[in-house]
Amino acid sequence: MEAKEAARKGPSRTEREDFRATSDPALQEPADRGRVKLLDYPELYRLWERQQWATQDLDFSQDRVDWHERIDEEERYQRLYGLSSFFIGEQKVADELGPMMRAAPQETQRIFLATQIADEARHVQFFDRFFSEVGVLEGADELSQRLERLEQHLNPAFGQLFDDLLKTRVDRLGQEPGDTRALIEAVTLYHMVIEGMLALTGQHFIIDYNEREGTLPGFVEGFSNVARDEHRHIAFGVRFLTDAVAEDDANRDVIQGMLEQALPVADGVLDPPWADDDTWELFGVSRDETHAFAATCLSRRLKVIGLV
After folding, report:
1. The pLDDT value given to residue 274
2. What span, in angstroms and rounded, lies between the C-alpha atoms of 238 and 259?
């Protein structure tokens, strides 16, 4: 009880100054009216320098006790969908960022995207340390083994979003770095949908649930750092797409077309594979609440970009 009470004290995570410093519109109510001051690319880089953290500083000793003694088998199985999606997702997006970075037209954009590659690699290491030291998977001793084992916990929509929609655009950029349309589509997919809708939604509810329950303190600390990184990445995406629309109004149609193609798939990714119908509940929230949160975050960002 004391752990749960302690977790409720203090400002909410999204109200913290370091989170709001990212300028992600989803964290700002004025974004509902499209009125947000976005950081430029050099400012986002300097923020990255100020917001460094190390996975090796995290302590997972209590997490191991919680996972094996306080969280029952059924709940562990349900949690594995979210954990698997994040672990594998971080590995996949780390692989896809290189062509996007090389295709960015401005040096300041490329410099920031280089920091994002470092962030994504750190996120993979965070999950690998958690899985290894907590003992989430027995008999999987290497990173590659853990990633392979976790594939069974994903749903088909996950593969469609990452291995089809995103990879197609990134492969195109690898061949044609000057393809502006492919770059805008990739940023829309990566920053607005994968990070902005899916990752931040999952992080929000997973962290809140563990804070309420007083479980997995090392994971909560590290995952909060991951979430702060993601808000900074999304702020880059909003800035990039806002600039793209300002430069050529026709880019509105490119962004909108990509969203129309991706959003039905993203909705499927939000639904765990073990759910039999639309009435599922996970981490204390319903399917409707989960989807509504994701939609609100996307709407705020699109308003700032000028699409809503």
Report:
1. 67
2. 14
Tell whether 65 is covered by a domain: yes
Tens digit of pLDDT for each residue in 232-249? 999 999 999 999 999 999
Identify the three-state secondary structure at position 286: strand
Chain center to CA of 64: 24
* Residues 185 and 169 sit within 8 Å (Cβ to Cβ): yes
Identify which of 58, 96, 106, 107 has the alpha carbon closest to the alpha carbon of residue 218. 58
Domain count, the chain: 1
CB-side exposure of 80: number of CA atoms within 13 Å?
Answer: 22
pTM listed for this prediction: 0.92
Strand bridging mode 281-282 / 285-286: antiparallel
Distance (Å) of CA 284 to CA 70, 98, 203, 221, 241: 17, 37, 13, 20, 34
Cα–Cα distance between 236 and 241 in angstroms, integer?
9
The parent domain of residue 72 ranges over 55-305
- For the chain, the farthest-separated pair of C-alpha atoms sits apart, in whole angstroms, at 57
**157 within 8 A of 269, measured Cβ to Cβ:** yes
Domain-embedded: residue 261: yes
102-106, 147-151, 183-187: range with lowest mean pLDDT:
147-151
